Amino acid sequence: MSELEPTELLPSERMQTQALDGEVTQIHRGHQYADVGDTFTIEETTFEVTDVTERTLGDLTDEDARAEGMADLEAYRGLLERAHDNFEWDDDSEVVLHRFERHSA
Questions:
Q1: pLDDT tens per residue, range 25-80
Q2: Which of 30, 46, 80, 92 has the fewest CB atoms within 10 Å, i.e. is most exposed?
């Protein structure tokens, strides 16, 4: 288990704030950035990574998008296209789910 910098998992301040507010409980990244049991702290609140699973973009659902702070999968897809140069959604592209929750001391 490791203590991560929050920016390693949640690269934007918006997502970190949404995690504190309970609006973001997971993130998909292109590579694995954490292991189950790793922790990170945002403004004195510690979170623990509870699931790390390899998936494809085609596996994502509206529920996944909402857990990442977006209204639905279409909004999530649009965010990825704006955030990453030359990004094209490909259902077969591999991603890694990182799910986390507030750490109970």
A1: 999 999 999 999 999 999 999 999 999 999 999 999 999 999 999 999 999 999 88
A2: 92
What residues contact 61, with CB distance under 8 A and at least 6 apart? 73
Exposed e or buried b per residue across 28-48, where buried means at least 16 C-beta atoms within 10 angstroms of its C-beta: beeeebbeeebebebeeeebb
CA 34, distance to chain mean position in Å, is: 11
Helical H runs in 1-105? 6-9, 13-20, 62-67, 73-83
**CATH number for the 6-102 domain, one of 3.40.50.2300, 3.10.400.10, 3.30.420.40, 3.40.50.300?**
3.10.400.10
